[in-house]
Amino acid sequence: MDFGRVDEALLNDLDFKLAAEPVFNKKVLKGQPAKKPQIYVGCAKWGRKEWIGKIYPKGTKEAGFLDEYVHHYNSIELNATHYKIYEPDAIRKWDAKAAGHHFKFCPKVPQSISHYSQLTNAGPQTTAFLEGVLAFGEHLGPIFLQVSDKFSPNRKDQLFQYLASLPKDLQWFVEVRHPQWFSDEGIWLELLQTLQKLKVGLLITDTSGRRDCAHMHLTIPSAFIRFVGNSLHPTDYTRIDDWVNRIRYWLDHGLKELYFFMHMHDEAYSPELSVYLADKMKEVCGIEIIRPKFVNNNTLF
Length: 301
Description:
- This protein is of the alpha/beta class.
- The protein has helices spanning 65-69, 88-97, 111-114, 123-133, 156-165, 179-183, 185-198, 234-252, 270-285; strands spanning 38-43, 75-78, 104-107, 143-146, 172-175, 201-202, 204-206, 222-229, 257-264.
- The chain has 9 helices and 9 strands.
- Strands 3-2-1-9-8-7 form a 6-stranded parallel sheet. A 3-stranded parallel sheet has the order 4-5-6, covered by helices on one side.
- Helix 5 runs parallel beside helix 7 and helix 8 runs parallel beside helix 9.
- The radius of gyration is 19 Å and the shape is globular.
């Protein structure tokens, strides 16, 4: 992911500390730990040739990438659906790869809806998209709508009406990027309150050059985090430390579900930081989560 990318020489000068815990979250979290919180960790794509010989066995063909991926992660941020509406038969083939695994696919709403429609005439496309992804069955996780960084609060009514039209028996998250959503307190509060009322989650994106998108607000007792690392720069590790401490706080206060997706500007290094995340979650939160296994070294850290 290139969103929020900055020159490596500037990384040490950035303030990566996560924002203070918002008072708003007290309206969402019950204050007591959930009985069985669900933790899901994944990446944005399974089709990474750079992982052959790292977590995929040497000689793995592209058709076998997902077969291998499900042994290392328990979820995938499915960006493929952003570029194409898939028929149910195609989705079933992916779903079959996860058979026997506690695994979630988290599809991204097609750009034909999120970026190229007015959100007021997207009913038929939304129906076609949902007819496809519902074929995931029990492996279907949250669906997320990312509107472009040009989608300003001037179009909030279109966004709110579209979200209100979506099926209530599915879990939805939305990601906004236009700076005015974050800079105008009144607009921000209206967004939070509307999403809370609709039971739609607000996605959190932690990327170097857009610290406003790492907002820490929860509108439902579930979190969907897109973490963008910088190819194992030292700050990647301290940022993960900060995140694990925040996740611990949220879990202690009632977070029911967490989706944490690892991104890198160079995705070759996502498995290494995923291992570090898993180890810190065990150390700080006392929770065992799935840990990528390296072909030649299963105890990388």
